[in-house]
Amino acid sequence: MAEKTTQRTLWGSKIGFLLAAVGSAIGLGNIWRFSYMSYQYGGGAFLVPYFVALVLAGIPLMILEYALGHREQAAAPLAFARIRPGAEWLGWWLPTMALFGIMLYYAVIIAWCVNYLFYSINLSWGNDPGGFFFKHFLQVSDSPFHLGGIRIPIASATFFVWFLCWIICYREVNHGIERACTIFMPLLFVLTLVLVGWTLTLNGAMDAVRNVYLKPDWSKINFITHPEARQVWIAAFGQIFFTLSLGFGIMITYASYLPRRTDIVGNALWTAIINCVYSFIAGFAVFGIVGFMAHARGVPLGEVIKSGPGLAFVVYPAAIRELPFGQSLFGFMFFLVLIMAGLSSGISLVEAFTCAVTDKFNWSRKKVVTAICMLGFLGSLVFTTRAGILILDIVDHYLTNYGLVLGGILECILVGWVLKAREVRRHVNSSGGMRLNFLWDVCVRYLTPAVLIAVWGNAFIRELRQAYGGYSTDQLVLFGVDWILLSLAIGVAFTFYPWDPRKLRRTHVPAEDALLT
Ligand code: TRP
Questions:
Q1: Are 192 and 282 within 8 A, CB to CB?
Q2: What was the pLDDT predicted at 253?
Q3: Closest Cα to atom 8 of ligand 1
Q4: Which of 8, 47, 72, 351 has the most CB atoms within 10 Å of its CB?
Q5: Least confident span in 11-25, 249-263, 474-488
Q6: What is the sign, positive or negative, of the torsion defined by CA atoms of 409, 428, 240, 388?
Q7: What structural domains and CATH numbers belong to the chain?
């Protein structure tokens, strides 16, 4: 007997939810970020820590976020406030970092892709794609402090990206996000397979895949004998959080729109597996193209490129030039894949914050989305300046390696210890679908937080010893640390507004009762 019917919109179908969740997970992280991470950290060697991070942190936390969102039918702030009123600020902090931290630069990277989509029509990058990207397109300044004015082509494409997000998020999730992902995702899979297949037919592609991508170099990941290998592990955990959209309350929000009877564990496993298999397959294209370049230019593999956030925008264009035929088509498809993958993730970042706000205040969704997209565009302008890529590199480093992982640790503590993992497990097991056993409790209470704390601590110690990426300390503090603190301040500010007490009451039937009905 539910005394209060929920007014919440639900996903239109099971597959619709899964596509939206996979849409959030698969994004620039799988192609742009995964490729430069795995390239930088030794190809196959990166896959091992990546897989370990998936099993130890990714999957248990995905189940946790889904279960919490489903149980409370609320986005992070309300869900956390119901666990303990004092935890509400954390529920605000995470989606604030997602929106004002990640989404601001994420939109700009999608905007680069929009520009490159057009550049690929007549291969505007010429025979020096690196110079074209850094000097002509970004016109990178010499320090993150020298903003040097907004780049108009980037800013206008950024406006377009925010406009698309606005159109998609404006409507309720089942009409907007779900429909967009139902179109984007199948198209994305098909295009990706075509690209990978095409790449692997190129000369030299299979060599690189076999000799670098699929061949782990154990010394690079053995952190006992090689202390510098810790960096690979830290990066792998950060990447898993980033790629699965974990730690910032997005999956909590998406699961809050699920109907009562749902296969939580099954959905979590599918989302994680589809996402990681996608990355793994996309890796073939990346290493394949590097191999092809090395072959075409007759240089050793390691000399083809420098890695870093520019990889997708330098190596791909360079390789495309060397293709025997279909250059523009290949380039167009590649950047279209990036745009679709990016947009379907970007909307999830906007949604997490939107839902958090509409849960608490009785404002209309349309107004909230409009305000967020306008503010978002204004905020993104920082990254469209000449210092954009430098600031982006710093913000991304801090938010993924510290923000997301910290979000994961705090979620484990809150759900595992304050709410009690057993309680959540009972909820999951009474919702239908695959059942969880006590091993999950062990993960959420002990194993996952312990591993994450170790990763976090190591990253922190490393940070103190050696400033990231050769930036100066004040640059790192201003853009990295302050960014995190600023979102904390915004988050805490939202907490001060009092709740309507009815909202703090749980609308979901507690698991034990659900069994009887
Ligand atoms: N998962 C997305 C990707 O791989 C990016 C993303 C979406 C994200 N939502 C997020 C990253 C939340 C961190 C937190 O590109």
A1: yes
A2: 93
A3: 245
A4: 351
A5: 474-488
A6: negative
A7: 11-497 (1.20.1740.10)
